[in-house]
Amino acid sequence: MNLFEYVRPASVAEAIAAAGEPNSAYLGAGTNLLDLMKGGALTPARLVDLTHLPDLGSIETLPDGSTRIGALVKNAALAHDTDFAKRFPVVAEALLSGASAQLRNAATVGGNLMQRTRCPYFTDTASACNKRQPGSGCDAIGGENRSHAVLGWSENCIAVHPSDFCVALTALGAIVEIEGTTGRREVPITEFFLLPGDTPEKETVLEAGEMIVAVRLPAEAAKLAANQRYLKVRERTSYAFALASAAAALTIENGAITEARLALGGVAPKPWRASEAEAALVGKAPGKEAFAAAAEAAFAEAKPSGDNAYKIELGKRVVARVLAMAAAGTPERMPALPASAFAPLPEGVVNV
Amino acid sequence: MSDAIPMPGGRNRFGSNSGQPLTRRDGVLKVTGAATFAADNHPDRLLHAVTAGATVSRGRVTFLDVEAAKAHPGVVAVITPENRPPLAMDPDEKPTRFSFRTEVLQDDTVRYAGQPIALVVAETLEAATEGARLLSPRYEEEPARHGFDAVDTYEPEAVGVGAPAKVGKGDVEAGLAAATRRVEVRYETPGQYHNAMEPHAIVAEWDGDRVTLDTPNQALVMSTGAFAAWFGIPAENVTIRSPFLGGGFGSKAIIFGGQVLAILAARMLQRPVKLALRRDQMYGPVGHRGATRQEMRLGIDDEGRLTALDHLTTSATSSFEEFLEPASNASLNTYATPALLARHKAVRWDIGTPGPMRAPGEASGSAVLESAMDEAAFAAGLDPLEFRLRNYAETDPASGKRFSAKALRECYADGAKRFGWAGRPLAPGQMRDETGRLVGWGMGTALFHAPMFQAEAKATLRADGTALVETAGADMGQGAWTALHQIAADGLGLAISMVEFHSGHSGLPDGGIAGGSGHTATAGSALHAAGTDAIAKLSELAVGDERSPLFGAGNVGVEARDGRLYRADDPERSESYAEILARAGLSEIGGAGQGARDPASAEERAMFSHGAVFAEVKVDPDLGQIKVSRLVGAFAAGRIINPRLASSQLYGGMIWGLGFALEEQAVHDRRSGRIMNANIAEYHVPVNADVPEMDVILVPEDDPYVNPLGIKGVGEIGITGTVGAIANAVWHATGIRARRFPIGIADMLTRPQAA
Fold first, then answer.
1. Disulfide: which of A304, B373, B436, B522 matches A309 by Cβ 3.0-4.6 Å?
2. Are residue B484 and residue B516 in the same domain, yes or no?
3. Is the Cβ pair B435, A124 closer than 8 Å?
């Protein structure tokens, strides 16, 4: 990797000042950043190491009932926090379906939001990539793109956001707390990530020097705890990125869905909130018909960006299944294979 | 640096070390981190070398920013075709039969992406790595040639390592014409990469015109000659230390250019040099399992018997060297048929040269043979096992020779019973589990050659009653050192705790090649013979000495057991090895032995290990995700020296088969030909969660012809049969024949979602 300056700030203010310099990057656990640096895909001149900052590592319930997760909380610590997992089971399930145990032990909440796409043309410095080198083109278009986006992509970029965690956060309407030189601001996660459009290099609303200090889950999200699931379809049983995933949360009263949350992963350049599908579910009786209609609504705008038309069909089936799983109720215990198609399933969930 | 396993304190059954499920002797060293792998060596004044790899598949390097690399702090030297010191051998020469043309910066041509185009040497690994990046090469690029339909085929002369490209008997066309049913299918297998856990590495240090190499190697003594040829020095001036290998799978049997360049840099700079490949650098320069397109034609008569079998493989190789996956030859020895044809075509792509990878030929070939046999069984309306039994080969289909031993019927029976095969519905899509997932059962026949190579060994009985045995064998993790140790102890009539075992060093007697599933048979035979030789010499001392209780036993003979010689006709009369040596005033007595196949047996008999693999898969009917839920393998492979380690090898092979069937493939960009998933996050191999409940049955088999010890091999056979069994189970669950490996979710989505 390139030579870089290493800065270890003592406070958030120092960190922000240090990272305001051009070509700086924040370092969390580095589970993604350092790999990209080793491969030469990223060559920051300065790394600002956040891991020694105080006060960013706790999970708190605030007086208004919302839950605030510090940016440096480890993925594993969050997923295994009993109280958190009880209140936001879909988040825990999504976290535990990602990466490996070792990576989850190291990787941070803030870093998860900031992870980069797994598009091989982004990682590979010999390929054209508008994300890595604006204006150079996109070799994924016309290349090996079976795992690329079917929603939200542009002629400049068809890469997908790889996170599982962010999909669950998106379904539950999480708020991202950001601190910068001009102070603190809050952005809903649905607005935190940007679509590629003509500027695929700009992936989030963060300005130079701004850092994520926390992610907050609103109190009302916890009310959905009884019926929420994450489902992730992948090319092997574990330790693989999603071909298509979905997080669903439902409120069911008197045999009808009164509130629905649905977000998709692995199919779009950002964690994809499926608002039309949510709207289509409200007032309906939970069941195959309603779920199939929601699946159609979720992918109504989808189109293949290459050899990936199958992902539209797959995505619809994932949506229908995750809604059926959520309707069947959050399991009492986390399945041994979280979010897996091969976890034990409630009866009637599989189409037979 | 440890190339000796300490003498274990374990118990042994009286009179027999072989057959005992000992744990591996190197296990504690490995789990405690005390085992020294090549890249763990850090001699004083060590320099680090990193190769820069081409980022185009074909063309010429027109510019390297050598100045930028040299200016990077810590960089000591940048070696390019411009300044590379001369080598003693032309890179197109082949000093051994396992030598491949390789890249040693002989010119500016690029023949595949990832090919080394420069070597940067620096004080630290980081500086060398960044120096290599700073070279920012520019190219005159030519279009990459890649894909079975994009490139013309040619007729090769040989496939694999010197196997004929076309073998046959009978009239295949007539057989097909006479058939009542025919199955004509085309399958494809992708390029696959060895991905040993330990990346290739070398530490080279010169002392005058002698060089010492720490490098993982599957063929130690042969490789000294190969390295020596590059540098114009005698083979004895090359010492290779290879005490531990973190997996080899065929890719550490063959010397690659990077090793030569590291040795060259060490000589040029007169300092020790280490080169350790990154994971992505293992995709190209160090071999792979070549891609194949396989076309099969099977004819079946009314009785469900084959009338003809034609297996045509098109194998992909590089533009500059030929290693062709001998996949069709997997059809030569399994099923009886009056007409048989195994033939190959070849295509040249702009890729690194393929090479042997665990079960070369047989893995890809049996995947397709067993799939096609399943298709034929269904066409014939027969249970897949019954169909195979009707086509059971009593003699070798290709040569007509009798088998040395073949307990395949027992494998079928034992495997089917353990699996619960009976009652399997013939039609696909008939079985569901309790939650509605599709369930399918499939099976495949496993078969692998039982070869022997050449090996030598020494045994030394010492005055204190202990012994030292030596052979330059290779333990890649398969447990060879443990199994060989057991055999050696039996050869000496000693408990294993009394025997010190040295291996993994080229200065020891030639242990042959750890490959082809022949290492235990070959090196084991040599060790056993060396022990027997030492005992014979010891007996001579005793029976010729009036003071010995064994005096005069020459005609009736003596038996060596538990450190003593006994009169064969009177077990009351015996003497310990130590007593015999002490009376003779000797501090030790040595023996030597060789291991090789008896040519007469080889001429008369066809020699194979056999097996049967049964698989159950579950497929989510909506989502298409596939999971293997059960695997049962029954294998007959002659005498099993260590059932624990043999089972472990078979488990490993079957898991590899699972990866072949459902996961492994190099994804090449269709335009540039470059591999886009050269890392083990995106190149999938099975993870723990993929591995189901597994059962390995070791079917007893006495094979008196393979070698006096009756040893075959178990290193590769586990893959064969398994791939087909899983593919057939997927079909049985879903009715979908993907015919292109790996089988994935997209293939399953062609099945409409149930209402």
1. A304
2. yes
3. no
Indicate if the pLDDT at residue B9 is higher than 90. no
Q: How far is B659 from chain A (nearest CA, A)?
A: 9
In Å, how far is A84's CA from the nearest CA of chain B? 26
The contacts of residue A189 (CB under 8 Å, 6+ apart) are: A113, A166, A169, A170, A173, A174, A175, A176, A215, A271
Q: Are residues B534 and B549 in the same domain?
A: yes
* Strands B564-567 and B570-576, sheet pairing: antiparallel
Q: Please give the residue of chain B at the shortest CA–CA distance from A236.
A: B690
Place of tokens 């992730």: A232
Q: Which two tokens stand for residue B526?
A: 């040599």
Chain A nearest-CA residue for B743: A235
Nearest to B348 by CA among B145, B58, B180, B615: B145
Residue B434 a catalytic site member: no
* CB-CB neighbors (< 8 A) of A314 in chain B: 623-624, 745-746, 749
Report d(CA A83, CA A67) in Å as an integer: 11
Instruction: Look at residue A345 in the predicted model and tell me its pLDDT.
Output: 82
CATH number at residue B714: 3.30.365.10
Q: What CATH class does A5-52 carry? A: alpha beta
Mark whether B577 and B610 lie in a shared domain.
no
Has residue B349 been placed in a domain?
Answer: no
- Residue B754: its pLDDT value, please? 57
**In this structure, what is the dihedral angle of CA atoms B177, B182, B183, B185, given to the nearest 10 degrees?**
40
Q: Which one of B267, B282, B297 terminates a domain? A: B282
| Residue of B134, B745, B749 to mutate for A, most A C-beta atoms under 10 A | B745
- Given the candidates 3.30.390.50, 2.70.70.10, 3.30.1360.120, 3.40.50.2300, the CATH classification of the domain at A225-328 is 3.30.390.50
CA–CA distance, A54 with A9 (Å, rounded to integer): 10
| Phi, psi (rounded to 5 degrees) for A114 | -95, 5
Q: What residues of chain A lie within 8 A of the CB of B682, using their CB?
A: 118, 120
Min distance A326 CA to chain B CA atoms (Å): 16
Q: What is the mean pLDDT of residues B313-330?
A: 97
Res. B4 pLDDT band, cuts 50 70 90: very low
Chain B CB contacts of A239 below 8 Å: 687, 689
Question: What does the pLDDT look like over A153-192, one tens digit per residue?
Answer: 999 999 999 999 999 999 999 999 999 999 999 999 999 9
Nearest chain B residue (CA) to A310: B746
Residue B4 distance to chain A (closest CA, Å) = 33
Chain A residues with beta carbon closer than 8 angstroms to that of B746:
146, 310, 314
Contact A349 B689 (CB under 8 A): no
Of A217, A276, A190, nearest to A95 (Cα)? A217
Residue A49 has pLDDT above 90, yes or no: yes
Distance of CA B529 to the CA centre of its chain: 25
Asked if B670's CB is within 8 angstroms of A349's CB, the reply is no
Average pLDDT (B723-752) is 95
> Cα–Cα distance between B248 and B223 in angstroms, integer?
15
**Average pLDDT score over residue span B471-495:** 95
pLDDT tens by residue, A272-325: 999 999 999 999 999 999 999 999 999 999 999 999 999 999 999 999 999 999
Bond preceding residue A338 cis, omega within 30 of 0: no
Selecting from B55, B133, B753 the residue whose C-beta is nearest the C-beta of A351 gives B753
pLDDT at B575 over 60: yes
Pairs across A and B, CB distance < 8 A: 112
ipTM of the complex in this document: 0.97
Q: Does B751 touch chain A if contact means CB atoms closer than 8 Å?
A: no
Average pLDDT over residues B442-449: 98
The residue-averaged pLDDT of B360-370 equals 98
B752 and A CB contact within 8 Å:
no
pLDDT tens per residue, range B390-419: 999 999 999 999 999 999 999 999 999 999
Same domain, B638 and B570: no
Domain parsing of chain A, residue ranges: 5-52, 225-328
